[in-house]
Design a protein that fits this description.
By secondary structure, the protein is an alpha+beta fold. It has two domains: about 5-110, Ubiquitin-like (UB roll); about 115-245, Alpha-helical ferredoxin (Fumarate Reductase Iron-sulfur Protein, Chain B, domain 2), CATH 1.10.1060. Helices cover about 35% and strands about 10% of the residues. The chain is built from eight helices and seven strands. The strands form two sheets. Strands 2-1-5-3-4 form a five-stranded mixed sheet. A two-stranded antiparallel ribbon has the order 6-7. It starts with a strand and ends in a 6-residue tail after the last helix. The mean pLDDT is about 95.
């Protein structure tokens, strides 16, 4: 396959950046998008040019680090699929592919296709965890959890924290990410003791870092984990519950 690739190049967060066009003559349909960038970088290095910077890690659709915007869509043309699992068979021979970083004011560009997603880390640090007493681990069946409850928690815990939902939202909202975080921790009994404090901390942090929910639904369309749109309702629900129960030890 011969592909024309238009890539965003930006040396640092202080530079304006621009799109630069390259050609790869020996791409293969079974290549993933990161492998295409690997091939392009090999060409650039051979020519004495700087390689394109992009985030990559597991390449198994688990870690969420590789996300970029492809032809205007976070991750790429295949719905509910992370960028590292998007393959060139989705494109025709001779296609023109445009690659750029996730676009959001909360995601400043570090270099080329790399963005700083630490705003999401700050939301997690504000309460997206369960505190446990150190010591001997309890037996697995000490606290029994109904099957439906466990399945619901697992469905919402599938979020890989890639940030595609934020990049897709016109307002740069994190409601899908934040809602999935709050829902899966509030569903299980281990997360209930800190439910109110967690909601107050996470929602406050999300409001500081990201924009308001647009209720357009672009977030759910690009989510690699298939987090349902119902997750966004959890943000206001958990915030309201925390406000009502503020004086209680929850």
């Amino acid at each position: 396959m011969k592909l024309t690739i238009e890539v965003w190049r930006q040396a640092s967060d202080e530079d304006a950046g621009e799109f630069v066009t390259y050609t790869v003559d020996d791409a293969a349909a079974e290549m993933s998008l990161p492998e295409l960038l690997d091939r392009l970088n090999a060409q650039l290095v051979e020519a004495g040019d700087d390689p394109i910077a992009f985030d990559t890690d597991c390449r198994e659709g688990i870690c969420g680090t590789c996300g970029i915007t492809v032809d205007g869509v976070p991750h790429g043309p295949e719905p509910h699929t992370p960028m590292c699992r998007q393959h060139l068979r989705s494109f025709s021979d001779g296609a023109h592919i445009r690659m750029e970083p996730f676009r959001s004011s909360a995601f400043p560009v570090v270099r080329d296709l790399v963005v700083d997603r630490s705003a999401m880390d700050r939301v997690v640090a504000s309460g997206g965890f369960v505190s446990v007493d150190a010591g001997t681990a309890p037996d697995a069946d000490t606290r029994q959890i109904p099957f439906d409850m466990a399945e619901r928690a697992l469905d919402f815990s599938a979020c890989i924290g890639c940030g595609a939902c934020i990049a897709a939202c016109p307002n740069g909202s994190s409601h899908l990410f934040t809602g999935s975080l709050l829902t899966h921790l509030a569903t299980l009994p281990q997360g209930k003791p800190e439910r109110g404090r967690r909601a107050r901390g996470v929602v406050e942090s999300a409001e500081e870092e990201f924009g308001p929910c647009s209720v357009y639904g672009e977030c759910a369309e690009v989510c690699p984990a298939g987090i349902p749109l119902s997750a966004i309702s959890a943000v206001n629900r958990e915030a309201a519950r925390a406000a009502v129960r503020r004086n209680r030890d929850d």
